[in-house]
Design brief:
- There is one protein chain.
- By secondary structure, the protein is mainly α.
- The protein has five helices and two strands.
- A two-stranded antiparallel sheet has the order 1-2.
- Helix 1 runs parallel beside helix 3 and helix 4 packs antiparallel against helix 5.
- The longest helix has 17 residues.
- It is globular and about 30 Å long.
- The chain starts with 7 loop residues before the first helix and ends in a 9-residue tail after the last helix.
- The relative contact order is 0.21.
Length: 98
């Protein structure tokens, strides 16, 4: 059973750090799974980050939005996910936040 993070700020900083610091994604994938995120939008974004990383070898804001458009996903629980990724990208963070 995976424990949930259950902290909006912690989840946001984790995702922002993964988007900005790709070198840590493979390490994080070993111990964090999408179901660890309490907020469904974060679980969706984490799944997208890991899938994009496995497919492309890197992740950034543009790749994530492009992938979402290809999948036809615009909203998760009434949240404009394109805008939300932009919000995440602008969160101050560093690799140590992962």
């Amino acid at each position: 059973m995976t424990e949930k993070i259950i902290s909006l700020e912690t989840e946001r900083v984790c995702l922002a750090s993964l988007i900005k610091y790709n070198a840590r994604i493979s390490d994080v994938m070993a111990f964090i799974k999408p179901e660890a995120f309490h907020y469904p939008v974060h679980s969706t974004i984490f799944s997208l980050i890991t899938a994009t990383y496995q497919e492309k070898g890197s992740v950034d804001q543009v790749l994530l939005v492009t992938k979402l458009r290809q999948l036809g996903v615009q909203n998760v629980e009434d949240i404009d996910i394109y805008r939300y990724i932009e919000v995440l990208y602008n969160i101050p963070c560093n690799p140590d936040n992962i």
